[in-house]
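Limitations
The structure tokens in this dataset are predictions for the assembled complex, not deposited experimental models. Users should treat interface geometry with appropriate caution, especially where small molecules or nucleic acid strands are included. An illustrative entry is reproduced here so readers can see what is and is not provided.
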Amino acid sequence: KAGVTQTPRYLIKTRGQQVTLSCSPISGHRSVSWYQQTPGQGLQFLFEYFSETQRNKGNFPGRFSGRQFSNSRSEMNVSTLELGDSALYLCASSLASPGSYNEQFFGPGTRLTVL
Amino acid sequence: EDKVVQSPLSLVVHEGDTVTLNCSYEVTNFRSLLWYKQEKKAPTFLFMLTSSGIEKKSGRLSSILDKKELFSILNITATQTGDSAVYLCAVRHGGSQGNLIFGKGTKLSVKP
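Predicted assembly:
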């Protein structure tokens, strides 16, 4: 079974631009979560999607948004990029079977550098 | 404020040593605690703990949760250089699958 895939793996942008990152979960997984990882703050929760609906959102500004498609693939968008948005963006998927809490499996991440 | 604290932040041991990594937490509506190993790439899942006192074991790694004292430990016996990594502890809280709060991690270096 293929793991979580993320594209692109590396991205370089300049301040003020916007960026879209993509995540394909493990087949059959319906929940997709996004995290930002930086050396100073560690791993921080961005948002979670399930059945095309955002179920939870972390403490990030509105410049960070996402969506999920009917095939469970998810995209994350960051508008008006700032230098501080440079980070590793990780996507994780979960089976999310009703009434239970399942393990989350991470993709390889997208390394975003903002110049 | 919800938080997860790991200790120590870094650790250097020699091959064959046994190590214990600590994770304490303060969260509302605790659901489960997860351990991950992160080398140069994405975190890889190790354990998920939901009940107190039940040890989870996988090879040389084991972990246990104490919901009364709000902590978990991850033990690694007979360490190998391949165990060198950052070990992350995360707590799931609330009613959602995806809302994990992570600790800052423990960086383990195993010397030959």
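Some entries come with short summary sentences. For this one: The first strand of chain B starts at residue 3 and ends at 7.
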